[in-house]
Amino acid sequence: MTARTVTLLGATGSVGRSTLDLIGSAPEGAFDVVAMTANGNVEGLAEAARRFRPKFCAVADEEAGPALKSALDGTGIACGAGEGAVLDAAAMDAGWVMAAIVGAAGLKPTLEAVRRGAQVAFANKEALVCAGPLFMDAARRSGAALLPVDSEHNAIFQAFDEARRDGIRRIILTASGGPFRTASLEEMASMTPAQAVAHPTWSMGAKISVDSATMMNKGLEIIEACHLFDLPEDRIDVLVHPESIVHGLVEYADGGLLAQMGAPDMRTPIAHALAFPDRMETCVERLDLARLGTLSFFEPDPRNFPALDLARAAFRAGGCAPAVLNAANEIAVDAFLNGKIGFLDIAAAVSDALGEAERSGYSQIAPTDFEAVYAADAEGRRLASVAVAARGEQRIQA
Ligand code: NAD
Ligand code: MG
Fold it and tell me: How far is the C-alpha of 94 from the C-alpha of 80, rounded, in Å?
């Protein structure tokens, strides 16, 4: 057996660490880690590097460079710092790349891996939201395989009969509903960052946890699914399923539904992508359906979770709107986590930014290349910063 060569972009995050956990418990020689990257978490990256012995490590934060160099001193592992060093890591010749940087920051390095035709395990949904058509096109040109890692998309990927697409009616993404699933709008208004990141079923990074609480995560996932499975937004439904056992479903013309199930543990979809097209052993908890007894499903509530409709509208509007939506959401989530705006202000600020981009005609311009996507991302951040400042101001006055 030859080792599968792997690179991890975002090695220190929740998805990155789960991936390393699987690699660490795989049989000796199954995987060979080529490169690993992080933003500024030198300690986490160096610790993983000492264990997994990549050829190269990179931190995106220039200022963290000297600390990484000294932490890896004597190990023989090369290191670099800055955005260019992260791109260098992505360009190294690993056959399989985990794209697990959070946010639009993952765009360039993920693109680098796609353009050189690697198998790219796609966790970084924001990159697909901002530049879905460009990514899908880049993958077609290079022959890169995009393996969905997001649990819902990984489930659908497994149940989706690509060769007989005509027989597919719709796909269904499940959503846990997040920590505020049963909260009233009044209660949601005063929720704190600590309450928002305390996810009931999944353990994830802070940004995606807040996105789950607003359900913007599901909105982003609708757009992600449109691109990955080449379907219009109205053939992608969402069902709230608090147990997070059924991850995604494909409905066929004959009325049959194919679903993929598993414990809510990202190591299962990651393992699917890591071993693809084979299967690998994991130590993930096995489902005991008899003990679970019942599984429940509900329609999402569009009034308490306006982010879902915002995302659908942005996808339908096309042009730069999805990139603006994503950028605005990143800014608004950051402002919420830093106590500058309230929980309900997140979706409101995104809506403000999208509305402004639409009024000015900016969002109608379709990005034809990645430079235009970066520009739309920057504009989304600018518009959201204005909206966040205004909402923060109102909050202080109230
Ligand atoms: P996280 O915050 O735990 O980790 C993010 C990683 O990205 C870290 O390694 C960090 O160092 C790196 N990073 C952050 N900013 C960077 C920058 N500017 N440049 C370079 N690297 C940077 O996030 P996560 O929860 O692991 O999520 C990663 C991605 O996977 C997100 O796009 C998320 O939506 C997606 N995802 C996560 C889960 C999950 O269970 N955590 C599930 C589905 C999809
Ligand atoms: Mg998901």
Answer: 17
Q: Tell me whether strands 96-99 and 119-122 are parallel, antiparallel or unpaired.
A: parallel
Global model pTM greater than 0.85: yes
- The CA 29 to ligand 1 mean position distance, Å, reads 27
pLDDT at position 70 is 98
Ligand that comes closest to the CA of residue 149: 1
Does the C-beta of 81 come closer than 6 Å to ligand 1?
A: no
What fold is seen in the domain 303-398? Rna Polymerase Sigma Factor; Chain: A (1.10.1740)
DSSP string for residues in 2-47: PPEEEEEETTTSHHHHHHHHHHHHSPTTSEEEEEEEESS-HHHHHH
4-148 CATH, one of 3.40.50.720, 3.40.50.300, 3.90.650.10, 3.40.30.10: 3.40.50.720
Contact in structure between 250 and 168 (CB atoms under 8 Å):
yes
Query: What are the pLDDT digits (tens) for 337-390?
Result: 999 999 999 999 999 999 999 999 888 888 999 999 999 999 999 999 999 999
8 Å CB contact between 118 and 97: yes
